[in-house]
Amino acid sequence: MLDAETKARIDSARDILVGKVPDPKSQVEQITIALIYKFMDDMDRQSQELGGKAAFFSSEFKKYRWANLLDKRLGGHERLLLYAEGLEKMDENKNIPRLFRDIFKGVFLPYRDPETLNLFLKEIDSFNYDHSERLGDEYEYLLSVLGTQGDAGQFRTPRHIIDFIVAAVAPQKHETILDPACGTAGFLISAFKHILKANENLTPDERARLMTNFRGYDIAPDMVRLSRVNLYLHGFPNPVI
After folding, report:
1. From CA 34, how far away is CA 120, in angstroms rounded?
2. Residue 122, SS3?
3. Quick check: 177 and 171 in contact, CB under 8 A?
């Protein structure tokens, strides 16, 4: 369960955006993109600290590193232009996994206010990549702001109903789990957690095979993006959505 401080940080990131990005779904998308952006730089830094090399921000993309964005020597407009350019070019970065390139495809910065961006990046900087269950829980809390009703006839099932249905169906580790209208992947993640709870002694290989049993579909590109990120943050290295 998330602590009050973490929830407050997520709410603060949304509050910073709300004046420039009033649509909750767009707020979630902007926070999602910024988190992935920062987490890639976190992973590069961890690799370098262990004697390795930067895997994501190298060659011509090195200038877009998160650390460079927060350089205090940058002016507000310079930072905004650098971040906006980095977002728009990131899907061309062959150094990052296809999953990430797909997530960045078509992304752009929907506002041009340096002060808003400064506050937003500072808040996002307080999140750290550790690939833990806590990180997935943080993201699910962020997704909860989307509510139950979306656009074009989309209806998002509340968490307690998802968990109730999954418990009633009781999916097994050898079964294929398919959600034909997966939204943000809530049912898939609940089913995954249910199976893990019922099989606490899975080996790493068995857990990896289990992840290949999950499939999702959605007609909305933004939902596909959010579900892929949600699954990735819950430990799925290659979500099939």
Report:
1. 9
2. helix
3. yes
**Alpha carbons 148 and 240: distance in angstroms, whole number:** 24
H/E segment holding residue 88 = helix 76-89
pLDDT bucket at 90, cuts 50 / 70 / 90: very high
pLDDT for res 156? 66
Q: Which DSSP symbol is given to 216? A: E
Measured distance CA(90)–CA(104) in Å, rounded? 6
> What are the residue boundaries of the structural domains of the chain, listed by start?
4-124, 157-233
- The model's confidence at residue 138, banded by pLDDT at 50, 70 and 90, is confident
Predicted local distance difference test score (pLDDT) of residue 46: 85
**Which helix H or strand E contains 215, and what residues bound it?**
strand 214-216
Count of all residues that appear for the chain in the document: 241
Quote the radius of gyration of the chain (alpha carbons, Å): 18
Q: Which helix (H) or strand (E) segment is 179 a member of?
A: strand 177-179
DSSP category for residue 91: G
* 165-202 pLDDT per residue, tens: 999 999 999 999 999 988 888 899 999 999 999 998 98
DSSP state letter for 149: B
DSSP string, 38-76: HHHHHHHHHHHHTT---SSS-GGGGGG-HHHHT-TTS-H
SS3 string of 159-201? Answer: HHHHHHHHHHHCCCCCCCEEECCCCCCHHHHHHHHHHHHHCCC
